[in-house]
């Protein structure tokens, strides 16, 4: 199973920091994402491009989670050497994160 199976994502930019918002599809998916999609796992998934500490804000009332991933956008939108300076396609990459299977009985 991958993250895309239970959540959708949107990304944006703040300088060289990627802002990743994940929206699990239901309560069981929110609990699963909260448990398994830690800031450390996100940092490892994005690899060497991450230049600092990944942080996460949980918003159970939406439900959603927002991650700040520093460095992924290179020098920032206007100076980034990458093809996707705003990081819009990186939401698709984030959704490829492998996860343990969700116990569908808990839905």
Description:
By secondary structure, the chain is an alpha+beta fold. The protein has a single domain (3-75, 84-98), classed as Gyrase A, domain 2 (2-Layer Sandwich), CATH 3.30.1360. Helix content is 21%, strand content 25%. It has 3 helices and 4 strands. It starts with 6 loop residues before the first strand and ends in a 13-residue tail after the last helix. It comes from Mobilicoccus caccae. Residues 2-98 form the AtuA-like ferredoxin-fold domain.
**What integer value in Å does the Rg equal?**
14 Å
| DSSP helical segment count | 3
Please outline the major beta sheet.
4 strands, antiparallel
Residue windows where pLDDT falls under 50 for at least 5 positions: none
State the helicity in percent bands: 10-25%
**CATH architecture group name:** 2-Layer Sandwich
Protein name: AtuA-like ferredoxin-fold domain-containing protein
InterPro entries: AtuA-like_ferredoxin_dom
Domain AtuA-like ferredoxin-fold: 2-98
Pfam families: AtuA_ferredoxin (PF23544)
């Amino acid at each position: 199973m991958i993250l895309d199976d239970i959540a959708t994502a949107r990304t944006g930019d703040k300088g060289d920091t990627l802002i990743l918002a994940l929206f699990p599809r239901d309560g069981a998916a929110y609990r699963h994402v909260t448990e398994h999609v830690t800031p450390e796992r996100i940092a490892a998934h994005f690899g060497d491009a991450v230049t600092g500490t990944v942080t996460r804000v949980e918003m159970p009332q939406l439900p959603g989670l927002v991650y700040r991933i520093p460095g992924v956008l290179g020098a920032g939108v206007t100076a980034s050497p990458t093809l996707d300076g705003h990081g819009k396609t990186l939401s698709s990459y984030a959704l490829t994160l492998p996860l343990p299977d969700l116990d569908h009985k808990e839905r």
